[in-house]
Amino acid sequence: MSGPSLLSFTQQSWEQVLGKVKRAVVYLDAACAESLHWSCGPTRLLEAVGDPACHLREFEPSALGGGAQQPKAVFVLSCLLKGRTVEILKSVICRSRFQYCVVVTAVSHAVHLTANHVPAAAAAEMEGQPVFEQLEEKLCEWMGNMSYTAEVLHVPLLLAPAAPHIALTPAFASLFPLLTQDLHLLNSARPDKRRLGSLGEMDASTLTPELLLQIRCLVSGLSSLCEHLGVREECFAVGPLSRIIAADLANYGPAKNRRKIAAGRASVVFVDRTLDLTGAVGHHGDSLVEKMLSALPQLPGHTTDVMVNMVELTALQPQEENHSVLAPGCLAQPNDTVAKALWEALLNTKHKEAVMEVRRHLVEAASRENLPIKMSMGRVTPAQLTSYIQLFKNNLRALVNHCGLLQLGLATVQTLKHPQTAKWDNFLAFERLLLQSIGELTMTVVLNQLLPMIKPSKQRASDDYNPEELLILLIYTYSITGELAVDKDMVEAEEKVKKALAQVLCEESELSPLLQRITVLLQPECNKNETGQRTEKEDLWEQDGFLLRFLRIQLPIHMAHTLLEGQIAAYRGFEIFVLWRKVKSLNQLLGMGGG
């Protein structure tokens, strides 16, 4: 029997949940659903429920309640049982006919005590779990009968194991290092003499209560992981926020007894993502998985997995209107041994070898099903892989037996054929050229070379860069060059780039979801005068039309947006925060600090 691991930690946690869900309506929030998705899959949960009258539902205010045929409910939640979460629980239970409610939270009782402002000394002497016990009483009250059954328990559903040695934390996808722009928010609650001059001066006492609680929830989950692994951790940190998290884990009270009896040792290294943006936005060229995560659309409600179009395996025509008819495929295949082995191979091999591995698995699967496959050697092409996949199309038994493998095969085909993949070499060439010449060229020269690439949608060809891709190039450029001495020529070059970017954003017929999040439509201060004519101020505003859309600082300090949104070396989720005409340099515009 293998020893404790990331995967066994998650599976053991879910086994505790599965033991509670028999004949229950199960409500999951997005983070727990993603953990389930990668660890054992919804099929395993439905098997444990074992009742066709019961269903899986999203935990949200508008969630359907339970009827007379559904007397039991299990709520699986990644967050604190406090505030809005408790309000939703009450709303769902009060409009249902439940007689038995189980609430599973991924947050430990110790953190709930902290959230309820119980001093550490008092918490250490406390018997039982009073916060959970009080909620159990409330659950019975909401069900309408104090003799009904209610349970509240903690299960550490922290991880979504993407591979044996890679795990994600979807509940903390929004936990992100603070930027220099956040200092004024931190300082707003501090006296003048104690104002912070830099992020390096931060400690736990300077953070907001909301951010501190989020950090403590993460620390609690990591402590549970270390307990499962049987290790005593040594914490190391690179970056201001990572230093605070590492210190909190090292000083976490409930972990003291666990460390005394731990047989093993482990080093835990925390790194602020903002210290290595080039790794996040660079195009390294070697990983097929990186291209999949970058090119394919994100699976709704997930931070990492993507949607795979399954139309090729049906009789539907491959037109766009048919794409939404079928449920999409995905990359996570936790219950398919062959597909899981292929996914791990894709993670650990270079692009060329990965594509050949996909072909090998498809050929072997077709041979096992006695399908009429025609072997071809040489370079693997999307058309060749598609021809192998379509062999399974009219064979239901073969489809069922190899569904996971076919999803990964289609993901490979769709990635290879995607326009974004065709641009990959262009990105790579730009980045390599920049690396080779960074010591010789000034930032002014680089920006002037970048300026002709910024084209409105009507002027762009298929191989030109769209606004998101231009922002990626700018982030890469400023990250790789580091601190810069700002001169007059650089300021002028930056102003030209900023104006061109804003003009492109204004002329986009439709902004992508990312661009919608980082832009806002400004309204003119004056619309029309009494005669219905536009005012002079508005005429001037419209002449300077690129200001109609501007990027603004919109980073809530307690809920910072994530750079990667949980993705592995993919760039789709980055955020830029800008206050137009109030930045001294594009370096500041991109949130990198500097002049």
Automatic annotation (TrEMBL):
Report the domain of life of the source organism. Eukaryota
PANTHER family hit by this protein = VESICLE PROTEIN SORTING-ASSOCIATED
Protein's name in the database? Sec1 family domain-containing protein 2 isoform X2
Species this protein is from: Erinaceus europaeus (Western European hedgehog)
